[in-house]
Amino acid sequence: MSAKRLEQAAQATKTAFLFPGQGSQKVGMLAELAEQFGVVKETFTEASEAVGFDLWNIAQSGEGLNQTENTQPVLLTASVAMWRVWLDLGGVAPKYLAGHSLGEYSALVAGNAISLADAAKLVHLRGQLMQSAVPQGEGAMAAILGLEDAQVVALCQAASQTGQGSVEAANYNANGQVVIAGAAALVQEVMAQAKEQSGKAIALPVSVPSHCSLMKPAAEQFAQALEQTAIELPSIPVIQNVNAAIARDVTALRQALTAQLYESVQWTKTMQYLQDQGIQYVAECGPGNVLANLAKRLPNIEKAFPIDTQSRMEDALNAILVAEGKIA
Fold first, then answer.
1. For 302-320, what is the mean pLDDT?
2. Taking a C-beta distance cutoff of 8 angstroms, is the pair 188, 231 a contact?
3. HSE (CB half, 13 Å, CA atoms) of 237?
4. Which of 249, 291, 311, 307 is nearest to 104 (CA)?
5. How far apart are CA 223 and CA 95, in angstroms?
């Protein structure tokens, strides 16, 4: 579907598409969809040629899948492949797109703001820069559950005053769910303090402390690559992570993508924005259902669908077509 037709079709719907970020990957993802829809492997071939290695093999074998520089282009490609299947099947064009962290790039490809080939190169580089910004073992991330956002921020600020580095709120995922990132020792300190305040703390199995000030050196280098990449405003609005807003020009879009490396993901505000705009249905366009489950908590979201298997894809396709009045 052309960008103009996509934009026109999207304007009249109450549906949004959400694209997941790193952590959603799993070995063998999209294998079932690939058996039924040739566009899946075509999409992986397109992205693989751009980065110079076989992304489909990594996705299916799992070899190197959890290395950040591989994870990011594989997940991006998986989400774009699912998006293309959705459109090929006549799925509703959503009114808004949003992606969690890495998923923002998937959303921009879906919105025709950037080509898949360019996005694959960018996120491959992004992963490399993030991995090299902090020596292995010196950074960490953890999910803090059951505390108010302000409590988590206060714990991070107190821990950061010890002179041993910094720890910050990295992802505001939902009310009562904040991910922190920073120096490994300080992340452990905040986890302990959160438990003392009757919260829960879960260490995340990641090698890179994303969305915190430790990523500023990576962001400085990444900004240069963004400047050299052809980017347009998307044909379907993309809600950006750093401000839960829609970029009004390409300069602002590039700046937000750069800042996304070291600033918090404002996912709670992103979902509130969708609610405020009258969105009632969401589909998670990537492996798993983490974002769909978060969306189900919201009072105005009537249905939230994962679409990573054929049966899930067909269920979402039919339900949203009926809900949007496209079929009886």
1. 93
2. no
3. 16
4. 291
5. 29
Q: Out of 24, 48, 101, 264, pick the active-site residue.
A: 101
State the span(s) of the chain assigned CATH 3.30.70.250: 139-206
**Residue 160 catalytic?**
no
Q: Which CATH superfamily is domain 139-206 in?
A: Malonyl-CoA ACP transacylase, ACP-binding (3.30.70.250)
Q: Check if the beta carbon of residue 249 is closer than 8 Å to that of residue 199.
A: no
- pTM of the shown model: 0.94
The answer to whether residue 328 scores a pLDDT higher than 60 is no
From-to residues of CATH 3.40.366.10 in the chain? 3-133+214-323
pLDDT surpasses 70 at 300: yes
Give the Cβ contact number of residue 183 at 10 Å.
22
Catalytic residue among 211, 213, 235, 264: 211
d(C-alpha 316, C-alpha 86), whole Å? 10
Q: Which pLDDT score, from 0 to 100, does residue 243 have? A: 96
**CATH number at 3-133+214-323:** 3.40.366.10
Would residue 101 show up in a list of annotated catalytic residues for this protein?
A: yes
HSE (CB half, 13 Å, CA atoms) of 96?
A: 25
Helix axes of 116-133 and 38-51: crossing angle, nearest 10 degrees: 60
